[in-house]
Amino acid sequence: MKKVWIDILRAKQVMMFGRLADEISGEHELLITTREYKETNELLKLKGIDAKVVGRHGGGSLEGKLDAGIARMNELNKLVQKERPDVLVSLSSPEAARVAFGLKIPHICVNDIPESEAVTKLTAPLSTLIVAPLLIPKSAWLKYGVPAEKVMQYNALDPVAWLKGFKPNEKVVSELKIKKGKPIITFRTEEVFAAYLSGKVNEKSSVVLPVINELMEKVDANFVVLPRYKEQEEIISKSLNGSAIVAHHAIDGPSLLSYSDIFIGSGGTMTLEAALLGTPTISCRPFSTMYEDYAIKEGLVIKAEKNAAAKAEEILNGDGKYKQELKKKADKLMKEMDDPNQIIKTAIKKFV
Hints:
By secondary structure, the chain is α/β, with parallel strands linked by helices. Helix content is 42%, strand content 16%. It is globular and about 60 Å long. The chain starts with a strand and ends with a helix.
């Protein structure tokens, strides 16, 4: 039996590769690795995925990222030489990409954000195959030294991989002690430690915090905040002082988004999840990507860096038609889109 190595670094990858691992576990041996990173580790546990913790997240500084990356490469090198996998699947993991390249292990690199230049430079040129959404032209990979013939595409947004056939679980509502009878407004903080946001955001605050404060003055609702990092959690909890529900651990995100009346995000994955589930979605992310531009063009997402609170209030005070139309649109797109994991499985078959 051939062995597939999957490296999982972030929450999105737990959702995407968790289902992939389930689907291929009967025909392949699996080596699943991750790193020390609160949200990812909690979500892996929540989903019952057994992963070897190798290394840690490097934080926000360049020095920290470099130190943690080098240390993790060394640890992965020892583990992978022992385990001897036949192929690597990662969502642009710099450390795994370098180890696989050095040990001549084929690397299937899934990537929906070529705009994240630092990570893509460290992964795409070393990869055997890029697997990416069709909405990203193959020419976008040329500047990273990847020719068109090394790119496989799927006609989908990434969250389709775990949202097809999804049924929400109401348990999340009671778990977060959300009050019934009031609208639910869910917020997701930005990736303050991501290299692509360096210099664009304030690590000691959050893009969504002013939006929350403004809406609290105008709307009687359940305000639910999903921080990414412990530092954000502490800052937001202190600032809001009990007036909002701040999740202190990983939760069932898709279910919460399904029950939310509005989602306001300054990240990427949850913005797409909410939109594909038919929840009115506002993006205040200070960064543009091809997948977000596509979602805006299709009418799934409203971009509002400056007036997110006003847009949210307008939707909440509306007659509900916007949400109904959005749900129809989202359901239609979900039916038409590929399951990205099926394309990744086709890619795996090329090497095992």
